[in-house]
From TrEMBL, chain A:
<dbReference type="GO" id="GO:0003723">
    <property type="term" value="F:RNA binding"/>
</dbReference>
<keyword id="KW-0809">Transit peptide</keyword>
<keyword id="KW-0687">Ribonucleoprotein</keyword>
<dbReference type="GO" id="GO:0005743">
    <property type="term" value="C:mitochondrial inner membrane"/>
</dbReference>
<feature type="region of interest" description="Disordered">
    <location>
        <begin position="409"/>
        <end position="433"/>
    </location>
</feature>
<protein>
    <recommendedName>
        <fullName>Small ribosomal subunit protein uS9m</fullName>
    </recommendedName>
</protein>
<dbReference type="Pfam" id="PF00380">
    <property type="entry name" value="Ribosomal_S9"/>
</dbReference>
<feature type="compositionally biased region" description="Basic residues">
    <location>
        <begin position="414"/>
        <end position="433"/>
    </location>
</feature>
<dbReference type="InterPro" id="IPR000754">
    <property type="entry name" value="Ribosomal_uS9"/>
</dbReference>
From TrEMBL, chain B:
<dbReference type="InterPro" id="IPR019368">
    <property type="entry name" value="Ribosomal_mS29"/>
</dbReference>
<dbReference type="GO" id="GO:0006915">
    <property type="term" value="P:apoptotic process"/>
</dbReference>
<protein>
    <recommendedName>
        <fullName>Small ribosomal subunit protein mS29</fullName>
    </recommendedName>
</protein>
<dbReference type="GO" id="GO:0005763">
    <property type="term" value="C:mitochondrial small ribosomal subunit"/>
</dbReference>
<comment type="similarity">
    <text>Belongs to the mitochondrion-specific ribosomal protein mS29 family.</text>
</comment>
<keyword id="KW-0809">Transit peptide</keyword>
<keyword id="KW-0687">Ribonucleoprotein</keyword>
<keyword id="KW-0689">Ribosomal protein</keyword>
<dbReference type="InterPro" id="IPR008092">
    <property type="entry name" value="Ribosomal_mS29_met"/>
</dbReference>
Length: 433, 393
């Protein structure tokens, strides 16, 4: 597919020429000779060109034979030219804007970076809009505008990809590969001397005990050495959006689901490790954000009792919590006991981190909560207790807490009321006159 | 996560009457720790014999006694319903009641009455401690002047009319005659004492007179029959009782649940000027107040103060000085304050086990150590809160 890249490079290089010859009958022809690609351009009005010197650099009419070019290619080239032209104007505008902005801010335009632009815009056009995308911004056009897809066919209009007419060639080629790999693995399974029935059983069992494969396979001693399931721990399949970005193809939810299932089945195969590289190609590591340095050391008071303080936020409430070790399960909030909260739901919110870590009876909690309503305060206390408790528990438990969502700030907030509506979402009663 | 450690479905919103589903537990059911579920019961059904060793145990009050003492008032409706469901009226023996019973037994009746005021946060078991005490008083043949819920005379009254006998006062009609029936039923044995006769003539109307020397029951019967004069009857009856106690013909126990409601706020009844009638203008309320003073002997006063017996603007503290107001405090002074606190660990265990035993708490996690810990945390160890959690309400 180097051709298309070369072609585009040429197109970019021919910018001025294309500008000059816009609207004239230009034909391109690919002449492939031993890996080297040349292009010939023939035009009836070439001789009338004003800048003949430029044209000579591209070996005009070197091969004088009349080249054929498909309509699809023509259209593509047309699109490409327009796109590049458009991008160039945008980039020029961006550069000018950047210079103006630098001057306004009294900075040197040469060293004015994107960060400086963002800061300048924030200063010059302050916005109270909630959604960051709705605030004024100025990015490089290459970031803001979608990339143009390269030509998928040659100048005769013949597609390069066998699956071109599926509409989603790259996507379906992945599916196809999965299928081929599965067949390959199956043949491997049968060739090791296992009977198909046994293999089927094995496959099912592996599927069932994927996460506990090693321990379970002890029982299947005969097969133990041969079975190698692909280790996918700590990774996940690309999200639909990421896959779309990578393939530059629009994938429907249904197709993505199909892909997920296909990959799952491949991974479940007893010999999936053989095609591990292929599988991992479409997976990305799951980031684990809780690092040891995020867990502060316990503090000790003058009596030697360990304690830890933490602050929690939720909605408009703020809570400050001190958790004492060597306790008996006492809980106070603003000088009152758990009855500070009338609703059982709020009390459960507070109880959950303590119960989850199994420290309900062994720590004392002193909390102060302010602002917001009762559920906000309960949520803030829950978050603060969880943050404080991570110093009391083992790192693996802290990681479990993180996965359970205890160490994540609940960022939901009250949604604003909209004009013309009764509340944030509720509409006024519609009345037909 | 390899094991499904998520909270069990909590269905507070699908409360059923007979089974508790309110218990949520972080741990799955198969990894619960077993705990002791034996209900500590005692066969000693006479409160006199209850000692500190019995604290946390449950004892039954006989149905006859319940019928005699609490037909009209004394047990809150939701608890009464519960006793029917449980097929027994069982009370946990707790420290405040045992102390008060002990104090009553050791009281010297030749001096002004001892006063015991139970106080504590709402839902700690003051009313049920009073139940225990009343049972004791009835067993010991005390004459009981019992008022189970005076707030209802201020706010939930049936009918109030300007008094026929007192200028500027207002009388309850039906409420007062119901109370007379309550008194009569509670004290039917004591009232058979021939010594209990009226000490003066009562001219209710021109034709209806209770002459001096007629039995006290004649006042009661007249009040029950003529509800227009029932409040006045209560007033005079209590005056007579006080006098009889003073002269040693009976042991008079005054038991009022929520004494502070006699002193705080106003009734919801409006007079002709559309003003709320103050409590000191209600004959029925005023009838009880002389009994709370220290100007007599031969009796005992037991009461409780609770924030919900006060008006909504006076619920900041549960302490008697605040709840009784100056008037109440000065009338009752001196008294013995008895703190009714939340369950101790042993009592809590006993209570949960009782609900389990009665199949009122049915969640499988309820019998486990974890389940009990959860119930204790969520309810803060308060008896009332526990009852709410196990869907007693």
């Amino acid at each position: 597919m180097h051709f298309t890249k070369g072609l585009r490079g040429l197109c970019m290089g021919l910018q001025d020429l294309r500008l000059f010859y816009a609207g004239q009958n230009i034909t391109f022809k690919k002449v492939a000779q031993a890996g080297k690609t040349n292009y010939s351009i023939s035009s009836r009005s070439v001789s009338q060109a004003r800048s003949e010197t430029e044209l000579t650099t591209f070996e005009m009419n070197k091969h004088s034979q009349k080249a054929k070019i498909s309509k699809a290619m023509k259209a593509y080239l047309q699109r490409s030219v327009e796109h590049d032209k458009f991008m160039e104007t945008k980039i020029t505008e961006y550069e000018i804007g950047k210079r103006h902005l630098a001057n306004m801010m009294g900075e040197d335009p040469q060293t004015f970076t994107q960060d400086d632009i963002n800061e300048a815009l924030k200063y010059l056009m302050p916005s109270g809009l909630f959604e960051p995308k709705a605030r004024p911004s100025m990015n490089h056009p290459l970031e803001d505008y979608q990339k143009m897809k390269e030509a998928e066919f040659d100048e005769l209009g013949r597609p390069y990809h066998t699956l071109f007419y599926t509409g989603l060639p790259k996507f379906f080629s992945i599916l196809q590969q999965i299928s081929f790999k599965a067949q390959e693995l199956d043949s491997l399974l049968y060739s090791t001397g296992n009977k198909p029935a046994e293999s089927k059983l094995l496959s099912e069992l592996v599927m069932q005990f994927r996460f506990a494969a090693t321990s379970y396979l002890d029982e299947l001693a005969i097969l133990k050495d041969t079975v190698v399931v692909c280790n996918i721990h700590g990774s996940k399949l690309f999200t639909k959006e990421k896959l779309e970005e990578k393939l530059l193809e629009k994938i429907s939810d249904k197709l993505y689901e199909h892909l997920c299932l296909s990959f799952e089945r491949l991974i479940d195969h007893p010999y999936s490790a053989t095609v591990g590289d292929f599988i991992m190609q479409y997976r990305e590591p799951v980031t684990i954000s809780l690092y040891a340095e995020d867990i502060p050391e316990l503090m000790y008071n003058e009596k030697g009792v360990p304690y830890m303080t933490a602050t929690g936020l939720r909605k408009k409430s703020k809570a400050e919590v001190t958790v004492y070790g060597q306790g008996s399960g006492k809980f106070t909030v603003n000088g009152k006991d758990i009855l500070y909260f009338d609703s059982i739901q709020d009390r459960e919110q507070i109880m959950f981190p303590l119960q989850y870590t199994g420290l309900l009876r062994s720590v004392d909690v002193e909390a102060t909560a302010e602002g917001g309503g009762h559920s906000g305060q309960a949520g803030a206390i829950r978050y603060a207790i969880s943050s404080a408790l991570k110093s009391f528990v083992s790192p693996s438990m802290a990681e479990k807490m993180r996965i359970a969502g205890l160490l994540t700030r609940d960022a939901r907030k009250r949604e604003r009321k909209k004009p013309g509506q009764r509340r944030a979402r509720a509409k006024y009663t519609w009345k037909k006159r | 996560m390899n094991s499904a450690k998520f909270i069990l479905s909590r269905s507070t919103y699908f409360r059923s009457c007979l089974c508790s589903k309110n218990l949520s537990s972080v741990v799955t059911l198969d990894c619960l720790t077993e705990s002791n579920t034996k209900v500590p019961r005692t066969s000693l059904n006479v409160p006199r014999e209850h000692t500190k060793n019995h604290i946390g145990m449950w004892y039954n009050i006989e149905p006859n006694m319940i019928k005699r003492l609490f037909t009209y008032e004394g047990i809150a409706p939701h608890l009464k319903e519960l006793t029917e469901i449980f097929r027994e009226t069982s009370i946990m023996i707790r420290e405040p009641a045992v102390s008060v019973i002990d104090y009553i037994q050791r009281s010297d009746l030749s001096v002004p009455p001892n006063k015991f005021i139970l106080y504590g946060k709402h839902g700690t078991g003051k009313s049920l401690s009073l139940l225990h005490i009343i049972h004791h008083l009835a067993e010991e043949n005390w004459a009981i002047v019992h008022c189970g819920y005076p707030v209802k005379w201020c706010t939930l009254f049936k009918e109030i009319l300007p008094s026929a006998t007192r200028e500027g006062y207002y009388d309850h009609t039906t409420d007062a005659s119901i109370w007379l029936q309550h008194f009569q039923l509670q004290n039917n044995i004591i009232l058979q004492n021939p010594e209990l006769v009226t000490m003066e003539d009562y001219h209710w109307t021109q034709r209806e007179i209770t002459p001096k020397g007629s039995p006290l029951t004649s006042i009661i019967d007249f009040g029950i029959g003529r509800s227009r004069y029932a409040s006045e009857c209560v007033f005079q009856l209590l005056k007579e009782l006080k006098q009889h106690a003073q002269e040693g013909r009976l042991k008079l126990a005054v038991v009022i649940d929520g004494i502070n409601s006699l002193y705080v706020g106003a009734s919801h009844y409006r007079d002709t000027n559309r003003n709320f009638v103050p409590l000191n203008k209600l004959t029925l309320i005023e009838a009880f107040k002389p009994l709370l003073r220290s100007d007599w002997k031969g009796g005992v006063i037991v009461g409780s103060v609770d924030i919900i017996m006060s008006t909504k603007d006076r619920r900041e503290s549960h302490l008697p000085r605040y709840l009784l107001t100056r008037e109440g405090w000065e009338t009752l002074d001196p008294f013995v304050p008895i703190l009714v606190d939340k369950y101790s660990e042993k009592e809590f265990e006993s209570a949960v086990n009782y609900y389990l035993d009665r199949r009122w708490l049915q969640h499988p996690a309820g019998a486990s150590k974890e389940g009990k810990e959860e119930l204790e945390f969520l309810g803060g160890g308060y008896p009332g809160e526990l009852l709410k959690l196990v869907n007693g309400r």
